[in-house]
Amino acid sequence: MTSLANLSQCYPLICKQNGRLWVMKGKYPESELQQLPEYCQLQQVHSVVVPYLNEQQRHLVELSFKS
User: Fold this and answer.
1) What single DSSP character describes residue 25?
2) pLDDT per position as a tens digit, 16-32
């Protein structure tokens, strides 16, 4: 696994202009969100329930990018 900041560097290669990047994380990635670069904008963090994971946390992070 990689951090949100590292993954955001791949944005130009994997997203179209004005695209969104959705990333599945475990527990709420508070420290990773604080380390996002300025060109990366947090849209939302969704709490996700995954069957059979016995109370393990999952979050879906939605990012957009400034031109």
Assistant:
1) E
2) 777 888 999 999 999 99
